[in-house]
Structure formats: structure tokens, C-alpha cells
Task: inverse folding
């Protein structure tokens, strides 16, 4: 039986005159685009441009919702009351979906960003707030997240479709969590190495942890961060290596 994988990337994370990553190049490689919704990065003009290009290339649009933290790029831990967090997620999701619809498309799934993503792995209150917002807006939207996380567990409990994600360019701890940014092995940037580990994840469901151990990684979607150094070449080599290994690339949504 052939393996089917989605290849996603975080896009639209510039702001005003500041550009982060090569969105247009990555949209020619990935099958799903996690589009920043203005809170950790992105602005209405960028959101519209990325949505229009994604729709023209038949790339699925996902709402990449995060903490209201432009200065910290959404990577700073924040304590927000669950009700307020749910409102923030709902605001971002509705804004991106409105822009996507104006271009003839729509948001197809939701994925938290940065610190919110990491927090929803273990924090039931924060995970519940994200799930509540998505359920209130459109319960048909899939939730993309880390296998075994509170986020996917709670989403599954309320009937949302859940999609397990693995990371091409991030190091794993032996417990299956992501290595903290800034720690040894947290970021993997060598394209050849990344491509090999992606093929291993796709074909064996395993990845080598930063401590040398083996971690089980069964995922439907594989992420290449748009702000990783050399992201375009990295994503291109990952796509080529997966296809050469017989993996079919197709969006889950």
C-alpha cells in the first residue's frame, strides 16, 4: 500500500515591508499552507496575496493561529484566560477565512503556531480554548497537531477531524515532543539530512531523537518551517526524496 503524505509550511509571516521566507517559491512545492492570521505575523495584504496564490496553485489554506505577539513572533509563552484565547483564535480564523473566500477559496483546516502549538500539547485549558473556537466557527474543519497532544485528544472528543503532524526540520525529544528552540539539535537545516529523515518517517514511522533514541512518528502531514534557513531548497529536496521513495504527496483537506 502506498504512503500518502501532505507537505505543509508556515507562510505569510512577514509584516508590512518586512518579508519572512519566500512564500511564492514554497507554494510551488507544498500541498498545504499554514497562513499567519495577523497576530504573530502577517497582515491583511500579505494574507490576501498568499491566499490568492495558494488558490491558484490548488494548495490548501490553513489558519495558522497564534498568540497576540508580533514582537515575539508568537514564540513567547503567554498566560491567557481560556475564554479570551478562544476569542482570539476565532478572530484570526474568521479573518483569514473571509480573505480566502474573497479570492474564491476558503480555510480548510487549523493549526496553532509557535508557543501556542507547544502549549496545547500538554495544557488542557489552552487546548480546549482552541478546540472551542474551531468548533464554534466550523466543526467540519480539521485540526492539525502533534500526535498524542491535548489538542488532538480534545478535538477528537468533540468530533473534530484530527490530523497528526511530523516535523522535517525540528529535533525530537525521546518522549516525542519537540526539542526546545535554541537547544542542541532543535533545528535541522542540512537539506540532505532532512530529506533522509523525512523518507525514514514516511516509510518506517520512526525518527531519531536528539539523544540518539528512536521515536515513533506516524503522521499524515509533514511540516517544513518557512523561516528555517534555506527553507525553499530544503522543502524541494524533501519533496523530491519522498516522491523518489514512492510517497504520494496530497493534501489531507
Result:
Amino acid at each position: 500500500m502506498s504512503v500518502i503524505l501532505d507537505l505543509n509550511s508556515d507562510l505569510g509571516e512577514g509584516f508590512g515591508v518586512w518579508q519572512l521566507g519566500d512564500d511564492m517559491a514554497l507554494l510551488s512545492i507544498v500541498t498545504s499552507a499554514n497562513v499567519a492570521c495577523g497576530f504573530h505575523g502577517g497582515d491583511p495584504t500579505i494574507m490576501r496575496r498568499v491566499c490568492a496564490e495558494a488558490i491558484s496553485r490548488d494548495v490548501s489554506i490553513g489558519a495558522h493561529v497564534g498568540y497576540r505577539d508580533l514582537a515575539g513572533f508568537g514564540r513567547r509563552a503567554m498566560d491567557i484566560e481560556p475564554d479570551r484565547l478562544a476569542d482570539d483564535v476565532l478572530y484570526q480564523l474568521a479573518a483569514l477565512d473571509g480573505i480566502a473566500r474573497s479570492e474564491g477559496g476558503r480555510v480548510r483546516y487549523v493549526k496553532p503556531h509557535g508557543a501556542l502549538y507547544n502549549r496545547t500539547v500538554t495544557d488542557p485549558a489552552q487546548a480546549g480554548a482552541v478546540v472551542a473556537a474551531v468548533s464554534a466557527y466550523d466543526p467540519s474543519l480539521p485540526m492539525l497537531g502533534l500526535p498524542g497532544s491535548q489538542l488532538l485528544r480534545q478535538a477528537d472528543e468533540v468530533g473534530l477531524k484530527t490530523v497528526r503532524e511530523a516535523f522535517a526540520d525540528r529535533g525530537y525529544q525521546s518522549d516525542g515532543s519537540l526539542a526546545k528552540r535554541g537547544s542542541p539539535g532543535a533545528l535541522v537545516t542540512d537539506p540532505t539530512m532532512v530529506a533522509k529523515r523525512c523518507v525514514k518517517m514516511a516509510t518506517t514511522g520512526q525518527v531519531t531523537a536528539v539523544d540518539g533514541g528512536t521515536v515513533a512518528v506516524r503522521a499524515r502531514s509533514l511540516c517544513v518551517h518557512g523561516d528555517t534557513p534555506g527553507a525553499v531548497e530544503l522543502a524541494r529536496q524533501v519533496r523530491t526524496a519522498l516522491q523518489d521513495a514512492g510517497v504520494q504527496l496530497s493534501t489531507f483537506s
